[in-house]
Design a protein that fits this description.
alpha/beta, Rossmann fold, 7-stranded mixed β-sheet, 9 strands, 30% helix, 26% strand, transferase, Methyltransf_16, SAM-dependent_MTases_sf
């Protein structure tokens, strides 16, 4: 697992290298680069088709899920933090992407977007989004084909807002890509109970994660809305 407590994290994504500055002394968890964002990003890098067209010989079990080239997909990230996962997904082909977090984290996110603009090639869109703020959710104009979230389950009180935001943001035929690590047993219990009411949940086999980023306590999940919750 290539994760350190150093002020800067370098994340190689195909032929590009992101340089992500973090502040582990901050009072906000969003100003640190958390392992799940790296695990999710490198899982996507491992399986995402490099560019269209994809031949049958190049097909993988995740080709359709992670094909961001053959059709334009609207995407949003919740709890973006320093931006590692979101920037990586952009480099893998997600062009129509909004990176969101709470207002105290925005300076760190915007700093890293500016820092990596030469690699990213453009300014990525950002938006302040509190999961319980319906006006902010409406303002980003859902639904989205892809919702990205990594290491966002750690406070029991916020779980209901998070699940509600995911449900409101993802399209009926869309997907939530979640990097997950247990942070709070209480939050964990509530989160999975609520998610099972709303989503069909698929856990990515651990052997399908990137071999250099297969942290033993971190998993990747794919959520899809249940067609009929009744």
């Amino acid at each position: 697992m290539k994760f350190t407590d150093s002020p800067v994290i370098d994340l190689q994504v195909r032929d590009s290298c992101l340089s992500i500055q973090q502040d582990n002394a901050s009072f906000h968890v969003g100003t640190s680069v958390w392992p799940c964002s790296l695990v999710l990003a490198k899982f996507a890098e491992r399986w995402a088709p490099p560019s269209p067209p994809t031949t049958n010989d190049d097909k993988t079990p995740y080709s359709d899920l992670l094909d961001f080239h053959s059709r334009r997909r609207r995407a949003i990230e919740l709890g973006t933090g320093c931006g590692a996962a979101g920037m990586a997904f952009h480099l893998l082909g997600l062009q129509d992407l909004i990176l969101t977090d709470i207002s105290p984290v925005m300076p760190a996110l915007k700093h890293n977007l500016k820092r990596n603009k030469p690699v990213l090639g453009k300014n990525l869109k950002t938006s302040i989004l509190y999961w319980n703020n319906r006006d902010q959710i409406t303002a980003v104009n859902p639904p989205f084909d892809v919702v990205i979230a990594a290491d966002v389950v750690y406070i029991e009180e916020s779980v209901g807002h998070l699940v509600g935001a995911m449900e409101a943001l993802v399209a009926d035929d869309g997907v939530v890509l979640l990097g997950y690590q247990l942070r709070s047993p209480e939050a964990d219990k509530v989160f999975w109970e609520m998610c099972e009411e709303v989503f069909v949940i698929e856990k990515v086999p651990h052997q399908d994660l990137h071999p250099d980023y297969a942290y033993e306590e971190t998993d990747v999940y794919v959520f899809r809305k249940k067609k009929n919750k009744n």
